[in-house]
């Protein structure tokens, strides 16, 4: 398509196109690249309203589009296309795109979705974690990287301006996708975006029925969460505290344990070097537990260890208080160190010895504590929990137990949604929750769409029943039967509908010989038809063979 044709077609959509055009005029991109970027923006503009309607929990279109334009302007210096099945595409090494952040270069196939993925990849920052999280840091970083990209491109991957069609092909790791979408629901889009982007302020809690402020700083109450001197935010701790406030400490403790196990399990499946590193930790735990089985031997060994450390402390004290021994130690140590690590002076050696002495004293303190009866029992219990943690992941197995962990995660996740549902009162809140459950029905998993799998099936059905019951009580939905099971049997069709605007859904029911035929309509257009077997003598509160509007 010619450049003039594209500009003519998208000029009706909004002012963002003019902004992108102005940016592209300054870039030395080829006409093909410019056309693709404009086409990409057109698809986003065309699909965003449906995306926002279906998912609810999304960034405002204005901010989403402005972010894309800003990345193109500030970070994309060169964009190059390669054709599939040619020698030049070998540079991609089997991937759809390649990003060189240092030089601001993108090499990709000529495809809008692929280009959008590359643009967001260009902008991604490396997530760093406190030492406390060294065990899970690589797996969490990979989760944020993959989960956020799949989430960002959803608007043009699954929406085309007139329908919602989930495309799982080439989506990426679906386990990451499920967990990312669940955390979006639990924590909100604002928080997840800030975490991915390593923002220096923690966004304020998002409130129901209140539009989020555009300015992230203004959205913080009294600037309480602004960290001074660029101190990194512990987003994992923030996540824990926010979830505890909403869902309670007991449930969140289960959720965090399963999250950590899932992150690790998913990551080590494709990263053998990380599996080896963490397997060593598991074996150390097993060894320590075995050592503690014989309490007398354990105490005896710890006592010997303490004596050895005490002897080392006495030796350091002797060296520190004797100038001749200090010079001898200085020469001895430097002879074994490479040039860049050599000790600068005698005074630096003294500082180092005093630091080593302090560490030895702390180690003795830890040993003394570990052999106290109460602490011994607590340490043993902690090690048993750690051993269970690793074994539930399947750290020693060829394939980690990811599916089992995902099932358990979904069970506690739905428990959190039950708590969320209990607090909802307004019609808008309940309507949004119905949309949330419908969106959750179509979240892709490795086993298929969530609503068509057996993953936490019992818990999902209980949640859906509770939601429908509350929606009928609050006059959000039309009650079609006084009999609770029949009412649920019919109204659960909502969750399987892919009609964009759920308020436009109509049902028509026909009954014959114990079989109820349920037809779903998008106003006058038939979407789907299902048949359900009813109990005898079941009565409906609505007329048969007549379309009824479900939302009040």
What does this entry show, briefly?
With 552 residues, this protein is α+β, with helices and mostly antiparallel strands. It is built from 21 helices and 9 strands.
In which range does the helix fraction lie?
Answer: 55-70%
- Percent range for β-strand residues: 5-15%
Low-confidence segments: 1-12, 209-229
Q: What order do the helices and strands follow?
A: HHHHEEEHHHHHHHHHHHHHHEEHHHEEEE
Mean pLDDT across residues: 89
The structure class reads alpha+beta
Number of strands: 9
Alpha plus pi helix count: 21
Radius of gyration: 30 Å
Mind summarizing the main beta sheet?
4 strands, antiparallel
How far apart are the termini?
Answer: 46 Å
Question: Reading side by side through the largest sheet, how are the strands ordered?
Answer: 8-7-6-9
Question: How would you describe the shape?
Answer: globular
